[in-house]
Amino acid sequence: MQSSPSASSELRLRPLTAHDNPAIARVIRAVSAEFGLTADKGYTVADPNLDALYQLYSQPRHAYWVVEYNGEVVGGGGLAPLACSEPGICELQKMYFLPAARGKGLARQLALQALDFAREQGFTRCYLETTAFLRQAIALYESLGFDHISAPLGCTGHVDCEVRMLKNL
Question: How far apart are CA 31 and CA 26, in angstroms?
């Protein structure tokens, strides 16, 4: 992370706790609203587990991290096995950051941590879905070695996520 020492002490990447459920749900809803990612189109904001992410990501081979800024959750992202697919594929999921957390390298740091976790868990490929509205996210994923693919994988439920990417681990 490229920032001054005082700024780095204000930002912290850490594992999700049960106490974080309401805060990360608010972040996801706020960022979704900012980019017009509505529930009726199958974006993450429609996920029935949105208010219970700690419980979801406490399962084996799942992980989720949050970013704190001055003690407030301002972003997060996770990784889980890709539903309805071969066992070696995981999915990078629910990467959302409020403006206060953007441009500081935190999404890259979190994604790299998730990919390391994926390798530790024995996954051989990592999949993700996003939308063309999130140009900065797509640029990040491309810089991390994700390739664009045409056909969706697994059962994500994200019917309007037209950008699909895959990375060999």
Answer: 9
> What is the domain-level CATH number for residue 96?
3.40.630.30
- The number of domains in the chain is 1
Are 25 and 62 contacting, i.e. CB atoms less than 8 angstroms apart? no
Which residues, at least 6 apart from 100, have a Cβ–Cβ distance to it below 8 Å? Answer: 69, 74
Contact 82, 89 (CB under 8 A): yes
pLDDT at 150: 93
Residue 46 corresponds to which tokens in the numbers above?
Answer: 């429609």
In a domain, 147, yes or no: no
Q: Which domain holds residue 71?
A: 5-126
Helices (DSSP H) in the chain: which residue ranges? 5-10, 21-34, 53-57, 106-120, 135-143
Residue 72 lies in a domain: yes
Write out the two tokens for 139.
Answer: 């640029």
Report whether pLDDT(6) > 90. Answer: no
